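TEACHING EXERCISE
Course module: macromolecular assemblies
Task: Read the component lines below, then compare them to the predicted structure of the full complex.
Student: A.B.
Group: 4
Components provided:
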Amino acid sequence: MRRVGVILFSFLLVFFLAACSASPPAAKPAEGTSQPAAQEPQKEPVELVMYSWRTEDKDAYAKILAEFEKKHEHIKVKFKPFKSTEYNTIVTNTLTAGSGVDILQLRPYTIAASIADAGYLLPLDDLKGVSDIPKDYLDAARGSDGKVYGVPLSINSAVIFYNKKLFADNGLQPPQTWDELIAVCEALKAKGITPIAQSGKAAYLLSITHSVIAPGSIGGNDYIEKMLRGESNFKDAAFVESIQRMQELAPFFPQDFVAIDDKDAQALFYTGKAGMYINGSYRLETFEKLNPDMELDFIPGLAKEKGGDAPMVNWVDGSYGIVKSTKHPEEAKLLMEFLASQEFGQRFSDELNRLSAIPGVTPKNPLVQKMTQLSEKSMVPYLMLVHFGEGTPTTKTTFEDSLQGMYIDKLTVEQVADATQASADKWFQPVK
Amino acid sequence: MNWKKHLVHALLLPALVVYVWFQVYPIFSAFWNSFYSWNGLQRGTFIGLENFIRLFTESPFQEMFYRGFGHNVIFFIVTVISKLMVAFILALLITSKIRGKEFFKTVIFLPKLLSVIVVGFLFSLILNPTYGALNTFLSFIGLEEWARPWLGSPDTALYTIILVNSWYGLGFAVLIFLAGLQAIPSEIYDAAKVDGASGLTMLFRITLPLAMPAVMVMTILTFIGAFEAFELIFAMQGSQGGPYYSTDVLATYFYRLAFGSVDGGESIGLGSALAVVLFLMISSATAILLFFFKRKEYEQ
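Instructor-supplied answer key:
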């Protein structure tokens, strides 16, 4: 009898322990919308919850959204930012669990499309202001049905930031081509200065750096169009050369850069210990906040030859969309109209030093102005994100992880190209 | 007397509802989801075992699975050595006649009071290659050549995380062993002394066999812990199990499959299939371990 009990108990224990171990990580349930106590005679007070992955923008949004709340006194907007790396998981869980959010910040291209296709968003084609936004930008939040599901927020550019003072002190000119970049790196290294403050711990940083280096090997839009038509691919000599160049940059990165966080790499740069730092234009705000006295400037993508075309590498950073299950669609529309307005675009650009996606906005910050001007002159899409963001794992993820593998001597340059192509082969259909 | 029984059942009900809803239901829904194709967040058509077949035969899923599994096995073996053996020795020392027992007990148990995420963050700082305390300390005592990017090198990253995990779980293991050791009646040792048994004989003939239940519980818990290792790796290296998957285990791989990366790329079908495989692996291995230990107990 005792044995039976033991066996039964063991069985239950097995089940219990295994149950504890196999359940997926649970998401925090989103908070419900609470009703403010103040009662207005005409309109019910309404609270809109707005999700974002930009925790660093919280203060700026508080200011900007206060403007909106002044105009619509019965609406309170609750801006809830989450950690960027956890954002997608939180959104997926919130949507599948039935939501506690009205306005979502949408990751661009593939992810926005998949959320729209799953029927979680309201179409916004008729929203006031949407028709003024460039078609290319709206592509970042289009569903498979061709409808627009998000109002694009900002344009990001991948750039090489450099410390003007360090360059001037060492008699260096900002490089335009690959050879010049190497020469500058050599000169800085000889002086004991880290040439490029690069972090390799989060692999996505590596593909951003690659996007700026690549135009020097593959050129601009002609090559990208050839790729999209299937006339060229990742194993093409020009593309392989761009990976090779990434490897050649390794000696100019900080020692053990694969173990270094991006925050540490940024610190190397804004404390003047490194000459250059490569990342998205959104870091401008970070540097101006952390070291306002720094003499900062940037270089767009590399040109193939001296004086040649040096394109800005651009992508839409995100859009705002309305969640279909919102209890306050009218108020959410009002907020979206505000987000699509020039007034918001201007405030957003001024407060956060970013390129607004809304037309007619003139950036206040001279560097942001320079980015806009250079983009108007010549622009290429961030190839990996805009065109190769599909697959499980995405081709972009495969590429950047492979680059990381290359830096720790696990993969050769050719293997990086092969792995990336193998990933694209699984899903990519050339545009005929 | 019958109403008392019913009362007990009634009082159990709330806990049972919570347990079924948060533990049992997700397991069955994962089973269910793993038999379907998925289009982003939408369930597609029923495809039978297709997801499982892809998981084990298609590149890169296949490589990731076996690599992750290998890392889980290493995790288990190294944890048994670095946590269980050390904890057992510490428990022996604490039960023997040393001074300041209570103090040691407290100190060993302290790490467990921190949250895993805090531990991960702290050790990320300690192990930082540029300003981390560990490398600074090594240079200070003249061992510069030992300083290395502990978490940034594929040769050391996994072992480093396992050791941090062992340090974190040491206190709990010591407590369980202490309970097991203190339950052994001292008369047995007295009798053995009279018979002239040496310390080692007593350890292998009395202490270890009689502390077996505690060893069994700890081994099984360690096994489960090793195969569902996630939090610390996620906190220190992110969901990619970097650098280049050198700290990737089945749970981090599952996370990527089910939730994707910042750029997407998730597949709920494949993720659920992996969750099911993990569940079956852990439950069957736990059953085998239990059976094996139980048999040993009956033999004695």
